[in-house]
Amino acid sequence: MIIDFRLRPATRGFLNMHIFRNQERIASWSGKLGMVPPPSAKQGDMELMLKEMEEGGVTLGVVPGRQANAFMGNVPNEDIAAIVADYPGKFIGVAGIDPTNRPKALEEIERFVVNGPLKAVGMEPGVLASPMYADDRRIYPIYEYCAEHGIPVLLMGGGGNGPDLSHSNPIIIDRVCGDFPEMTVINTHGGYPWVTEILFVAFKRPNLYLCPDMYMYNMPGVSDYVM
Questions:
Q1: How much is the pLDDT for 130?
Q2: What Rg value do the Cα atoms of the chain yield, rounded?
Q3: What is the pLDDT of residue 30?
Q4: Full 3-state SS string of the chain
Q5: 28, exposed or middle or buried, with CB in 10 Å at 0-12, 13-18, 19+?
Q6: Which one of 37, 93, 107, 170 is CB 3.0 to 4.6 Å from 84, fit for a cystine?
């Protein structure tokens, strides 16, 4: 079974994200990695994307919502729940959460994850309109809630995760994993470019899983992830 763990389907609110709106920028990023965007991304065609998944042997996609800045584009959790319902057995939904609005964040986790169809929580603190570090103590009540309810948390940490590289420093993920050892943390963008450092954090913290996604292709450090 092949699982695409950070999939952006060509439907609903995802079409408002920069990866669909700004084709020139995405082609440039893909080109730097030695790849080209698939036809479904260029055309914003969901049925074509499902065909591409089938041709590539991808049996399941993990679809995270997004609460970030206006440029990147946001996808409401209602859309994630609808995608899961529209394509049964194809996708696992992740609730995108804005930790700057803690009451709303906790309410959405309860509604969409604890009592709804979504299976995890996703946060990208470094790309909020007012960037935060993932170990900001204002986020800790949300981590506490997720830990208590056994909810995995996807934390973006790596790549363009914030206005500078400090937001991707593995020390931050290490701190969160250490403070919440019962909470499963999936580090999206895999701590890149701090590859050796994040690998040691994963070695040290059994509750941490790495998802290097785009940085697993044609980039320095790939062999270290594989090792």
A1: 92
A2: 17
A3: 86
A4: CEEECCCCCCCHHHHHCHHHHCHHHHHHHHHHCCCCCCHHHHHCCHHHHHHHHHHCCEEEEEEECECCCCCCCCECHHHHHHHHHHCCCCEEEEEECCCCCHHHHHHHHHHHHHCCCCCEEEECHHHCCCCCCCCCCCCHHHHHHHHHCCCCEEEECCCCCCCCHHHHCHHHHHHHHHHCCCCCEEEECCCCCCHHHHHHHHHHCCCEEEECHHHHCCCCCHHHHHC
A5: exposed
A6: 93
Residue 103 has pLDDT above 90, yes or no: yes
Rounded to 10 deg, the angle between the 102-109 and 140-148 helix axes is 20
- For 45, the token pair is 């065609």
Q: Give dist(CA 108, CA 148) in Å, integer.
A: 16
* Paired tokens of 31: 């080109």
Q: What is the pLDDT of residue 191?
A: 96
Q: Are 128 and 164 in contact (CB under 8 A)?
A: no
Average pLDDT for 168-183: 97
**Contact status, residue 137 vs residue 172, Cβ threshold 8 Å:** no
d(CA 4, CA 33): 18
